[in-house]
Structures are given as C-alpha cells and as structure tokens.
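Reopening: structure tokens for the shikimate-3-phosphate complex, inputs below.
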Amino acid sequence: MPFNYHSKIEGTYYPPGDKSISHRALILASHAIGESKISNLLEGEDVINTLKAMRSFGVKINKISDKYIIFGIPPGGLFQPKKTIYFGNSGTSIRLISGLIASNNITVTLTGDKSLSKRPMKRVTEHLSMIGAIIKLRKNTYPPIKIKGSGNAIPLTFNIIIPSAQIKSAIMLSALNTNGTVKIKEFKSTRDHTENMLQSMGYNIKVKENFKYRYIEMKNDKELKTINYKIPGDPSSAAFFITAACLKPGSKLIVKNILLNKTRIGFINTLKSMGGNIKLIKKKKTHNELIADLKVEQLNFLKSTTLKSSDVPLQIDEIPILSVAASFANGLTIFKGLRELTVKESNRLLLINENLKKIGVKSIIKKYDLYIYGNNYLKEGGATIRHDDDHRILMSFYIANMICKKNNLIKDKSCVKTSYPTFFKDISQLTN
Ligand code: S3P
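Re-run output (same inputs, fresh job):
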C-alpha cells in the first residue's frame, strides 16, 4: 500500500533493539571476563561500528544464531589496533570509545564520515586530556581524533556543563581503568544506561541525585561480571510510530517490549501533554531498566504545547518527529533551548525549520527556540525534503507524508541504516 495521507498506524509493533544500550552492552561486556550473551542487539551501522572497534582491540565477538557472544578482556587490556578506526556516522561510538582508549596504554586514530567529521569532539577530549591522555583534533575541535592513552590515568572530579550522556559515558569508561575514585557531577540529567549497566554487572558505582545535580562515584575495585542481556526496544525508533499513531485519526498501536527509562521517554510525556493517548499495559525491570508494553490510540486531535529547555535532554533525539506532531496540533507549539540540535548528525534545528516550511507549515527559529504554528488541516506537501543524510530528519519527514495532501520527495533513503535498518519494512507492516 502507498504511504500517504490515507494511511493510519495499526497493529502490534516490536521496536528494534535500543541503540544506546546496544553500544554500551558491547563495550561493557568486552570488559567482563568470561562469556556474555546479547540478543536483540540493534544491527544498525552505528552499533556495528562499535562492534568492529571492540574487535580491533582484540575482543572476541561472535554471532551464533540470534545472539552475540562476547569474550571480554580486563579493563586496561586493550590491544594496540593495527589501523585507524572508522566510526562512520556514529557520534556515540567515537565519543564513548575515546574515553575507553584514554586510560589504556595504546595510541589510536579515530575517524568518521562527512557528518561525523564536522561534529565537536573537544567537549569530550578536554576531560580526557586531564586524566593524562595526549589528544589531537582537527582544528582543535573535530575528528580525526588522535589519542595516546595514559596507562596510568589520574582519578579526578568532573563537572559536566553541557548536558550530554556521551560526555558522561566517555569519562565513565575511562574510569574503568583508573586507579582511585572518579567522581562526576552532571547538572542536567541525561540518559543513564552506562550507570544502570555497570550496577547490573556488579561494578562499584554509586549514583545520588539532588535538586542541583546528579552525582556519580566509581571505584574500580570490583570486576565486571558477565552479562546475559536481551536488549529492549528503542524508544527513539518507536517514537516515529507512537507519534504517528497519536496524530493520525483511526490509528491504534500496541508497542511491545519498549525501554521506558525515564531519561528516554520525555517525548511520551510531551505527546501526553498534547492530548496523546498512550497507556501502559504491562511493565517489568531487567538490568535496572524499565521495559513495558504500551497502547497508543488516536481519539482526539493533538493540541499545542511548550517544552522547557531543561526537558530537552530527555527527548533530544525526538524533537524532529515531535516537530511534525506540533505542525498537526492545534495552536502554537514552542520548543525552547534547542542549541544541542545544531551539532547532531546534521544541524537539525535548521533542517526541521526548513522542511516544515517546505511542506507548508509556518515555523520560526528565534535564537535557539523553535515556534511551530500548527493546525489539524492537511499540509500542502509535494516538497523535496532536505535531510543531509540525517536518519532522524529523513524518518520524521517520511512520517509527515501522512499529513500532506501530496507526498514529499525524499532522495536517497539509505541513511536510515545508521539507526533503523528495518524502518520501511516496519512502516509497511503497520499501515493499512
Ligand atoms: C546518546 C546520547 C545523546 C543522543 C545520541 C545517543 C548516547 O547524545 O543524542 O543519539 O547513547 O549516549 P548527547 O548525549 O551528546 O546529547
């Protein structure tokens, strides 16, 4: 069936494995002595780049039927890779693995594709230099990153000012091979999967939270235990379908086995504040992560909302699809404080605004705030979408075909493979 304004979302949906947890499971299991088993690993290019990097450090990773079997090596035991490591489009891989290398006695060059080569790395490496790693960046900012790790990293206290789970996790991974106590303060909460997985693997980590900051303390005096992990469904991938089901009349969706970690479901709260009908059917906890089944049903048209900048880190990857929802919600929606969106796989703030306008929606950027004037009339559409090979922009504006009179043209859809290789297959299974 063609996917257009006649389409609605219906059926039972199993989102693909969570990307953030997939990266972390590969990296942490690589440091547990013995055999870890991971199933439902996201087989997107970003995660596969992490997997290849871990292999290049001497970690044995095999796939047997649908499980990845990992034989870990001790923290600090990374082998010197023979070549430069290529990370493709993956900011998470290059930043997290920079942290790992920083406290190992190896020297590595890390590169990426055109988009990754334009993304800021100093936000991570400035912390890693302080522990004793010697690091060079292109123009003192961008990849390639050349790191000479310190086999004798200094335990420090870090204050993380930019809200970024990638910065936090890079420091945490460097702490795995740092003697002494590493302390981290983050002033806005970001996704906490590294903390959760380390706790679940028996590591000595304490996490406390007060109204001013989150505090993490790590001591490497306990070995990481092996892990047997079935990765839960990715809320950031499911967001395309959950949002579509909230906004399109006649939609009814059951979402199975989705990760419901509170640092990841800001978009669900935003959709609910817009009148979206999302109900919890079942929940359970595994490896310190909440996993659930949901029911989503379009009963009413959405209404506008205002998002505070402090809530943005909890839905940082979902702003593109929420912008599509806002365009079909009655009234003015304001997303505040979107500066971080300008340094993602593309300048997402700019591309959201440009594409909304192209499909016939009034939208304005004021400094780093985005104003979207929505209503529940079909948009003109018929535009050529500019996605700059950014997977989440592409998927968001593909979903926008559901609310446009004429379908939009999207050239070269191959970039979905970075985070969601089965996106188009899932669409065809869930649309009438
Ligand atoms: C991620 C953290 C986020 C997010 C990215 C995945 C992670 O980046 O945008 O897609 O797995 O840690 P920042 O933490 O830099 O905002």
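The longest helix spans residues 235-247. DSSP finds twelve helices and 22 strands in the chain. Marking as resolved unless the reporter disagrees.
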